[in-house]
Amino acid sequence: MTQCKQRSTTRSIVVCLMAGAVAATAACATSDSRDTAVFRDGDSGAIAETGATADGSPDPFGSGFGDAGTSDGAAPSAVLAAVIRDFRVYDPANATTVPDFENVPHTDQNGAPSQSYTGPWDDRGIVTDALGADRAPVYKNATGTTLTTHGKENFDLWFHDTPNRNIRVEYPLPLSRTKEGAFEYDSETSGTPFSTTDGKEMFLPIDDGTPYSTAFGNQSSPHNFSFTMEIRTTFTYRGGEFFKFRGDDDVFVYIDGKLVIDVGGIHGPESADVQIDTLGLTIGHDYPLDFFSAERHVWGSNILFTTTLELKPAPR
User: Fold this and answer.
1) Peptide bond into 120 cis (omega under 30)
2) pTM for this entry
3) How many whole angstroms separate alpha carbon 199 and alpha carbon 302?
4) Using an 8 Å Cβ cutoff, are 94 and 103 in contact?
5) Which residues contact 162 (CB under 8 A, 6 or more apart)?
6) By the 8 A CB rule, do 75 and 42 touch?
7) Which residues contact 86 (CB under 8 A, 6 or more apart)?
8) Are the beta carbons of 216 and 87 closer than 8 angstroms?
9) Closest CA to 99 of 116, 87, 83, 108
10) 15, 30, 113, 235: which could form a disulfide with 53 (CB 3.0–4.6 Å)?
11) What angle do CA 91, 187, 171 make, to 5 degrees?
12) Ramachandran sector of residue 4 (left: φ over 0; alpha: ψ -120 to 50; beta: rest)
């Protein structure tokens, strides 16, 4: 049985977007909206090398990520722009906290009361099958709750900026290029060590002491484990692509505004995949791919993200 609370459980996110052929370079694009995913090619763009956008304005993510290097020592090629929203851990005495974060059910997987069960709590069907008008996930049970969530009002905070309830962080995720030519971020080689005695690197982007820490801080924990992340992209469908995912806690992936992966709940690593050819898309057309995730429970957080798709900034 997966033990979500145990330190031995690796809490990871693995995303793999594979195209039929490896692109020689990423789409080189800029946007004044930093809530989209942006890939900037280090070989062709001044962005990664000079810290300036194509129009000459300062790169909102600076130039340091353009020098990150790759797994084989080659020049880096891309920066993925994500929006992270930090949340306080739940405290019933504090109305600004959200009960969906660090507040696991006192039940087993089936909802029967239990004080000893430590997970997983799979929770499919938290969201509807389509994005809302604001391009955010929509809570499915509008008048109720789910096993691990506490109603629409609380869920709506996950991916919307809300003063005093969450703090928005614009986070640049540096992607290296693998020997095979794909783009990759691997927290096990680029992350933060869990502790001085445990050197395993994890995805801990907004910890205290980092450039992206928030006023909420680590909240009496060694790390900050209560946050959501969204990444917005578009891609040109060429045929033969597939999307594979393995990870823990909630992940919702939408292609063309429709839900194609639902790994909702608080759990250990789980896998899902979709064959893009089965979605009825038209070859040569552009489609949005929107990725949403939530980190809602301690004790680990890892990401391995590899792609050969030619991702571009999503429309505003």
Assistant:
1) yes
2) 0.77
3) 13
4) no
5) none
6) yes
7) 166, 167, 169, 206, 214, 216, 224, 226, 227
8) yes
9) 87
10) 30
11) 65
12) alpha
Per-residue pLDDT for the chain (316 aa), expressed as one digit of tens each? 434 444 434 444 444 444 433 333 333 333 333 343 333 333 322 222 223 344 444 343 333 223 334 444 444 456 778 999 999 999 999 999 999 999 999 999 999 999 999 999 999 999 999 999 999 999 999 999 999 999 999 999 999 999 999 999 999 878 777 787 677 778 888 888 888 888 888 889 999 999 999 999 999 889 999 999 998 988 889 888 888 787 778 989 999 999 999 999 998 778 888 888 999 999 999 999 899 999 999 877 877 777 777 777 676 6
Q: Which of 222, 122, 229, 216 is closest to 185 using CA atoms? A: 229
- Asked if residue 289 lies in contact with residue 235, where contact means CB atoms within 8 angstroms, the answer is yes
Q: Cβ distance 312 to 29 under 8 Å?
A: yes
Question: What secondary structure letter does DSSP report for 250?
Answer: -
